[in-house]
Amino acid sequence: MNHLPYRKPLVQALGGAVFCAALTALAACAGSLPVPAAPAPADIPQLRAELARDSSRVPVLVRLGAAERAAGHPQDALPLLERAHALQPSDPAAVAYLGLTHEDLSQPARARDLYREYLRIGHSSALKKRLQQRFPLLRHQELVLAAKRDIANEAALTGRPPEPRSVAVFPFVYLGSDPALEPLGRALTELLVTDLGQVDRLHVLERARVQVLLDEMSLAKQGLVDSTTAARSGRLLGAANVVQGQIGGSEDQLQLRAAVVPVTQPASAATLSENDPLRSLFDMQKRLSLGVLQRLGIELTPAERDRVLHRPTASLEALLAYGRCLEAGDAGDYAAASTQCADAARLDPGFSAARAAGARMTELSASTGTSTNELGQLAGAELNGAQSLEALDALQRLVPEPIRRSPALEVEGREGGSGAQTGVIEIIIQPPVGD
Questions:
Q1: Can you tell me the distance from the alpha carbon of 170 to that of 303, in angstroms, rounded to the nearest whole number?
Q2: Cβ-contact 114, 99 below 8 angstroms
Q3: Second label for 254, Cα 20 to 30 Å away, from 62, 89, 130, 208?
Q4: Nearest to 207 by CA among 219, 191, 222
């Protein structure tokens, strides 16, 4: 904690030696105090009584807000913590508990902003680590809320013009007979999203956003071969084009099919098809990406073409493990997803997309296994700083006004006479009268 705002007036009033002695005593006292536990519901009556006596005490506002949260009343905690944050924006405890309250109230965007603020000003390394891990979970919650909102407002969105040159890639559906190849659906979808994303003139929607919407519409496993259904989903996403894909055939003759569906004219969908043995999968995938870009009316520059043709991996086993990672992640099994992505990175150490997805799945696994109440217990450590700040405030109030010395009066020997202001400390150190 920074004591500098208190140091100057205290030094002026007490003198350096006395100030240091006071701070030493205060530090020893504070250091001997145990780190306070997070406020509990049983503390609410006492905290309400304290707040009634002084409604501007930030530590009391924070503790009462935290107690209301612990009691399962985030809607009551919110105004208390908002007031504390307004009075003391840099108070780490207020920021942490306010972020947790917004997450409790299903407001992930506001929670994320407050968690980022805590990472900047907070003191608890344990809480910082847990909050950092929470960002992918909050992003997923944002996507789910957006999908639910769009579905509920579908009628109003029907007439909304799509964003120009935007495209949503739906998950490729595996229609073959070998279950071991089914993960290719998610893997090839992500590869196509990555390839299309190499063109700055296109806005490619993230795969997770598309997947969440299809899950909410219960369309994720229906094959998605109907262009009318694709157009409906595309309108909800605000996309101008939708790409649907299928994987069929066998290991000896694999077939990749894709349809590029203009959302406003679904009947004019253009189809592409690639056929080759499984061992030529990566060549097929790149030809499919180039074909989709051509159907979208994109003429690639040489640099863009080189980026599109870059292969993130040449290992089929690593690609299948990556697909299993994405499947498990979409199903909410983040621990299994993390394991599969780790396998993909082990099979191909240069597969950076698998490593990045694995790190994200690890964070999702850790955050879904930690409740906001557990995070609230960690945030209790910040309350010690607030209590110490109150102690310094109390010490400041006990200190007399700084001594104002008058050189003219001192020369005349009347420094203690009428008109001079004598501080408490000056009275203590004056020699006895008559000496």
A1: 26
A2: yes
A3: 208
A4: 191
The CA angle 330-194-299, to the nearest 5 degrees, is 145
Residue with tokens 């956003």, as numbered in its chain = 209
DSSP, res 54:
-
Helix (H, G, I), strand (E, B) or coil at 243: strand
User: Please, are residues 169 and 204 in contact by the beta-carbon 8 Å criterion?
Assistant: yes
- Could you count the other beta carbons within 10 Å of the beta carbon of residue 411? 9
DSSP secondary structure code for residue 242 in this structure: E
Cα–Cα distance between 224 and 246 in angstroms, integer? 9
Q: Which residues pair with 259 in a beta bridge?
A: 244, 271
First to last CA, the chain: 45
Is residue 419 helix, strand or coil? coil
Residue pair 10/396 in contact (Cβ under 8 Å)? The answer is: yes
Q: Which residue has the tokens 């097929």?
A: 284
Q: Is the dihedral of CA 306, 312, 316, 322 positive or negative?
A: negative
The rounded Cα 249 to chain-centroid distance in angstroms is 42
Q: What angle do CA 170, 174, 223 make, to 5 degrees?
A: 55
**Are 39 and 47 within 8 A, CB to CB?**
yes
Residue labelled with tokens 């917004």: 102
CB 167 within 8 Å of CB 129: no
Helices (H), 264-412: 281-295, 302-309, 316-330, 334-347, 352-368, 372-379, 383-398, 407-411
> Tokens in use for 379?
């945030």
pLDDT tens for the chain, 435 residues long, are 444 444 444 444 444 444 444 444 444 444 444 545 678 999 999 999 999 999 999 999 999 999 999 999 999 999 999 999 999 999 999 999 999 999 999 999 999 999 999 999 999 999 999 999 999 999 999 999 999 998 888 887 777 788 889 999 999 999 998 999 999 999 999 999 999 999 999 999 999 999 999 888 876 555 454 567 778 888 889 999 999 999 999 999 999 999 999 998 888 888 999 999 999 999 999 999 999 999 999 999 999 999 999 999 999 999 999 999 999 999 999 999 999 999 999 999 999 999 999 999 999 999 999 999 999 999 998 986 555 445 444 444 455 554 555 555 455 555 544 444 444 444 444 444 444
The angle, 0 to 180 degrees and rounded to 10, between the axes of the packed helices 92-104 and 372-379 is: 170
Determine phi and psi for 170, rounding to 5 degrees: -80, 155
Please state the pTM of the whole predicted model: 0.75
Name the DSSP class of 171: P
